[in-house]
């Protein structure tokens, strides 16, 4: 898939997103190699430096709710739809998936995505972890393994991907990431699914080292100043 170009012409949705009537995906082998090296170095360094926080958070989660493990493992779709196991600090009750169907009518997102700002399944410590984005830190191991990158479209659930149309699937052309345009948007819960997908295609079309650095710095700023959209 890397060596091909994908062009969609005369699509009004893409026209609104880019001010153009086409979307083009091109292979960028040099950029991809540099990005992978950057991902490995930065994720390894972050894991070493943040290891005390990993330990403290794991203990706090275990003390708060002894019924489940501190790390939540979930199947997500990576590049080309390949399934991988994503790691997060557990922020919900152990039977959160079973309760999901009963909360469908409370979903605040359109499209296939399920999100509730004040999700009743979230534990007390889980709210803090989500507000500070600490719950995402275990994904540094996903980055080190190569399942994810620091910057890229957020990895989707397989059930969500099954509902994608042909245009939505374009976001699967690249390795998913820890942060992206949508992640740094202060009002991201108010962004429609269509706009979210447009932001991901915008990143794929313009992706490069300087854009990645810019998004990383924006992410750091939003975390420090608690500009969180959940």
User: What is the helix/strand order?
Assistant: EHEHEEHHHEHEHH
Radius of gyration: 18 Å
What's the number of helices?
Answer: 8
Would you tell me the overall average pLDDT?
A: 84
The proportion of residues in beta strands is 5-15%
Whole-Å distance between the termini? Answer: 34 Å
Number of domains: 1
**Order of the strands making up the biggest sheet:** 1-2
Structural class of the secondary elements?
A: alpha+beta
Give a short account of the largest sheet.
Answer: 2 strands, antiparallel
Helix share, percent: 40-55%
- Unreliable stretches (pLDDT < 50, length at least 5) are 1-21
Dominant shape: globular
Extended strand count? 6
Describe this structure in words.
- With 230 residues, the chain is an alpha+beta fold.
- It has one domain (31-224).
- Helices cover 42% and strands 12% of the residues.
- The protein has eight helices and six strands; from the N terminus they run βαβαββαααβαβαα.
- The chain has helices spanning 12-18, 29-64, 96-100, 124-131, 139-145, 158-161, 193-206, 209-224, and strands at 6-9, 22-25, 71-77, 83-89, 149-151, 177-179.
- The strands form three sheets. It has a two-stranded antiparallel ribbon. A two-stranded antiparallel sheet has the order 3-4. A two-stranded parallel ribbon has the order 5-6.
- α1 packs across α7 (193-206) and α2 (29-64) packs antiparallel against α5 (139-145).
- The longest helix is centred in the first third of the chain and has 36 residues, at 29-64.
- 29% of the residues are buried.
- The model is unreliable at 1-21 (pLDDT under 50).
């Amino acid at each position: 898939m890397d060596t091909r170009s994908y062009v969609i012409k005369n699509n009004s949705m893409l026209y609104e997103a880019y001010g153009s009537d086409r979307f083009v995906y091109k292979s960028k082998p040099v950029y991809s190699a540099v990005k992978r090296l950057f991902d490995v170095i930065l994720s390894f360094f972050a894991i070493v430096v943040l290891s005390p926080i990993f330990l403290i958070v794991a203990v706090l989660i275990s003390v708060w709710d002894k019924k489940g493990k501190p790390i939540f493992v979930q199947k997500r779709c990576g590049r080309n739809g390949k399934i991988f196991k994503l790691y997060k600090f557990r922020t919900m009750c152990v039977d959160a998936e079973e309760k999901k169907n009963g909360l469908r009518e409370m979903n605040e997102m359109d499209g296939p995505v399920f999100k509730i700002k004040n999700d009743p399944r979230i534990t007390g410590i889980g709210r803090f972890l989500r507000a500070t984005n600490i719950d995402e830190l275990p994904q540094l191991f996903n980055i080190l393994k190569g399942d994810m990158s620091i910057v890229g479209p957020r990895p989707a659930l397989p059930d969500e991907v099954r509902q994608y149309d042909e245009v939505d699937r374009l976001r699967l052309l690249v390795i998913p990431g820890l942060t992206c345009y949508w992640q740094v948007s202060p009002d991201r819960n108010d962004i429609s699914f269509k706009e979210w997908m447009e932001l991901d295609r915008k990143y794929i079309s313009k992706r490069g080292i300087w854009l990645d650095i810019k998004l990383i710095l924006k992410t750091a700023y939003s975390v420090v100043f608690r500009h969180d959209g959940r």
